[in-house]
Structures are given as C-alpha cells and as structure tokens.
Design brief:
The structure is a single chain. The protein is an all-alpha fold and 82 residues long. The chain contains three helices and no strands. It has helices at residues 2-16, 27-46, 52-80. The longest helix is centred in the last third of the chain and has 29 residues, at 52-80. It comes from Methanococcus maripaludis (strain DSM 14266 / JCM 13030 / NBRC 101832 / S2 / LL). This is DUF340 domain-containing protein. Keywords: Membrane, Transmembrane, Transmembrane helix. The chain crosses the membrane at residues 6-21, 33-50, 56-77.
Length: 82
C-alpha cells in the first residue's frame, strides 16, 4: 500500500512541472520506473506463502468456467448471426 502514496506524489509533482517537462524525453525514465515497479511488486508477492495444490485447483476451476462461458456465448451468438 505504501507504493500508492509514492504514485500519488509522483502524479502531483508531474502535474506541477508539466510545462517544464514538455521538452524532455521521458520514455526511458518511465520505462525504468515501470520495470522497478514490477520488480518490487514481484518481490512483495514472493513473500506470500502459497499452497500449490489449492492454487492449482483454483486455476483449474477458473479455466473450466472460462471455457464453458466461451462455449455458451459462442453457441448463443452463433445462432443469431447466421
């Protein structure tokens, strides 16, 4: 949750200095910040203890629900567009 505060401060600073930053290419610092954000979120997620079996079961349930829903949508919409 602490990263939300950093993002809000970054948005405020970016809004305040918007006019002076128009001439600067911000693609590389933005890419670096995004990579660091993904890295640190992964580090925090890595600290969580997971039960592999329950994760597998939930993943299988989700995939079955998605497949059945996709097939039902295809059957119902397929008949309408013929």
């Amino acid at each position: 949750m602490n990263i939300i505060y950093i993002l809000i401060v970054g948005l405020i600073i970016g809004y305040l200095f918007k006019s002076s930053l128009e001439k600067v290419d911000l693609s590389k610092p933005t890419n670096l910040a995004l990579l660091l954000l993904i890295f640190f979120m992964g580090v925090e997620a890595g600290k969580v203890d997971l039960n592999a079996f329950s994760t597998f079961v939930v993943s299988m349930e989700f995939s079955v629900i998605v497949m059945v829903t996709s097939l039902l949508v295809a059957v119902f919409l397929g008949g309408r567009f013929r």
